[in-house]
């Protein structure tokens, strides 16, 4: 399930490693630099095996936030590869193994490119996203058809973070960290009956899941069309939606 992304003459491949219950650990391989980064490895053995299956060796770990299903694999990966670990300085005390703390506006070299670090608080207070040309790794801030629960931040912060991600070009590929898409679109279909974009996506993701296939990655343009959390006009509407999703069954 690799995605080839032409950027000038440079080819970057992104692959998903399913892990834990419904996480995706993303591998980002830069052929020119011979470099492989792993994003949010909640399971070190799964990440190492996934990289080995592609013939890649992990040399960098990128962390979006401290939750154990995004960080528990760090020690195993560092022990096996000596990879360097980059993640939110604001959450340094919350997980083990952070080498290089990052904050909004920082840049981190990933293979032959630079990633911009954006603070995207809401799911956690120190949550960051990695923004590369044409690609964004939003962790648990943005999901296909949804967004993360508020485990530390306010509705104002999460609404602001989602609106910032929505400023990326429509064709930007987004790699969220969970396969929550079907449940998200069932909720959106109940919230907005008759919405054609939501009905279209509910049908698409239902078919993908019935075939045992991932629904991710997505794109910013797709989310701007069909994700009510991105479409929410103001903080009050966003907060109402988030609360309704929290109790949706
Ligand atoms: Zn999380």
Architecture overview:
It is a single chain. The protein is an alpha/beta fold and 249 residues long. The protein has a single domain, classed as 4-Layer Sandwich (Metallo-beta-lactamase, Chain A). It is 33% helix and 27% strand. It has nine helices and 15 strands. Strand 1 and strand 2 form a beta hairpin. The site of zinc ion (ZN) has 4 residues, from loops.
Gross CATH architecture: 4-Layer Sandwich
Radius of gyration: 17 Å
By CATH reckoning, the class would read Alpha Beta
Beginning-to-end CA distance, first to last residue: 31 Å
* Tally of discrete structural domains: 1
User: Could you tell me the mean pLDDT?
Assistant: 95
The H-level CATH homologous superfamily, spelled out, is: Ribonuclease Z/Hydroxyacylglutathione hydrolase-like
Major beta sheet summary: 7 strands, mixed
Give the bound compounds.
zinc ion
Tell me the fraction of residues in β-strands, as a range: 25-35%
Strand order of the largest sheet: 1-2-3-4-5-6-7
**What is the structural class?**
alpha/beta
Overall geometry comes to globular
Helix-strand pattern, N to C? EEEEHEHHEEEEEEEEHEHHEHHH
What are the SSEs and their pairings?
Elements: E1 3-7, E2 10-19, E3 23-30, E4 35-39, H1 44-54, E5 60-62, H2 68-71, H3 74-81, E6 84-88, E7 100-102, E8 107-110, E9 113-119, E10 128-132, E11 135-137, E12 142-143, E13 146-147, H4 155-165, E14 173-174, H5 181-191, H6 196-210, E15 218-219, H7 220-226, H8 228-231, H9 235-246
Parallel strand pairs: 4-5, 5-6, 6-7, 11-14
Antiparallel strand pairs: 1-2, 2-3, 3-4, 8-9, 9-10, 10-11, 12-13, 14-15
Helix pairs in contact: 1-3, 4-9, 5-6
Bound molecules: zinc ion (ZN).
Zinc ion (ZN) is lined by residues 65, 67, 123, 140.
């Amino acid at each position: 399930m690799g995605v080839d992304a032409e950027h000038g003459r440079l080819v970057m491949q992104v692959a998903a490693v399913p892990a834990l219950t419904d996480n995706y650990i993303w591998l980002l391989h830069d052929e020119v630099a011979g470099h492989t980064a792993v994003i949010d490895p909640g399971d070190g053995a799964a990440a190492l095996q996934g990289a080995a299956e592609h013939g890649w060796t992990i040399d960098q770990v990128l962390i979006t936030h401290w939750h154990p299903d995004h960080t528990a694999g760090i020690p195993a990966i560092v022990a096996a590869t000596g990879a360097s670990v980059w993640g939110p300085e604001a959450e340094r005390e919350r997980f083990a193994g952070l080498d290089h703390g990052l904050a909004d506006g920082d840049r981190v070299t990933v293979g032959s490119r630079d990633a911009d670090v954006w603070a995207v608080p809401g799911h956690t207070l120190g949550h960051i996203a990695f923004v590369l040309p044409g690609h964004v790794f939003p962790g648990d801030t943005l999901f296909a058809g949804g967004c993360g629960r508020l485990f530390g931040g306010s509705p104002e912060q999460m609404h602001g973070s989602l609106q910032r991600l929505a400023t990326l070009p429509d064709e930007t590929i987004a790699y969220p960290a969970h396969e929550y898409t079907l449940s998200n679109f069932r909720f959106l279909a109940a919230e907005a009956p008759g919405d054609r974009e939501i009905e279209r996506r509910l049908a698409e993701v239902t078919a993908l899941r019935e075939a045992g296939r991932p629904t991710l990655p997505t794109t910013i343009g797709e989310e701007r069309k069909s994700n009510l959390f991105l479409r929410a006009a103001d903080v009050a509407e966003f907060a109402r939606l988030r609360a309704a999703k929290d109790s949706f069954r």
